[in-house]
Amino acid sequence: MQSREDEALARAAVDALTGQLALAPKPGLPDPRDLDARSTRREHDSLRWSARALEPGLAAMAAAARRAGEPTPALRAELGAIGRCTEHSVGLAGGGHKGALWALGFLVAAVALDPGAEAREITANTRKMAAFNDKGAPRRPSRGSSISVKYGAAGARGEARAGFPHVRRALDTLATTRAAGATETQARLDALLTVMSTLQDTELLHTAGPLGLRQVQAGARGILEAGGTATDAGAEALAALDTDLHTRAWSPRGSAGLLAGALFLDSVSVNSLARTG
Question: Given a cut of 70, is residue 35 above it in pLDDT?
Answer without folding.
Answer: no
